[in-house]
Amino acid sequence: MPLFSRQYAQELKADKNFAHTLTQPMRTDILELFRRHDHHYGSPQGGSLLGDLPEIFRTETGKQLSAFVADENDFRPVDNAHLAIESGARANVLDLIQIFVRRLSSIDCERGQRVLGELNAVFTHHRYPWRLGEDGYRRSESEILEQQAERALGLLADARFTGPLEEFQAARDRLSAGDTKGAIRAACNAFESTLKSVLGEPRGTARQLSQELVERGYFDDLPEAARRGFPENVLMALPFIGNRNGRHGQGRDVVDVPKPYAELAVTLAGTFITFLLTKSNEEHQGGIPA
Which domain of life is it from (predicted)? Predict the structure, then answer.
């Protein structure tokens, strides 16, 4: 099981937020779990696994633990795992979690597996987009998609986007209720409504509105050869799903839409809405008329 800081060394170097924020309540829950499952050695010298973590961390990484000091507005070296978990760098905390689980598993495999399950439950409870397994950390796709949806909802909170907001929320609600066709219809409607709101156009199909984005220079930051094809090859993926899964009638064949396609449609709607609103804000700041 490679440590997080080694498994994703390049990503961490390129993006300081790659590890995602560890909220204080989440750090508190992790520390409480460590305390509850700490292994105390039955030796004359005493000691515990939690107490040994700083030295084990130093041996495995070649670095000393650190914790954030508010008065200094900086990190300082510490020889205390409690402090490191409470306010240390995110990657270091994730490394400490792996070391703790690995060492505890070597002492008592069953306890180690139990702690691993409880730690992932903490991640789920706090909607943290990573899960720990025997092969290291992996992103939790469901949490990432949920964060994308929440971001889209946040952008749609502007009064100008009341219609798209209601339609996108309806898409998510219908998906949760198992209404796959309804979810796809609402997702496509939310996308089209966002296009209309961004462009200030009262009518038009998704294809027509997407091409209007090209005409107004929304994709001028792409190479010229890619501008014309961007709407058709990228943005029309969602309308394609809708048109093929009963949005505009089913023809002779009754279409029973499996849930993964509805999930894809709602996810694409959230992604495209976020893209459109973010891009629209950039273009307005740059002086391109709506």
Answer: Bacteria
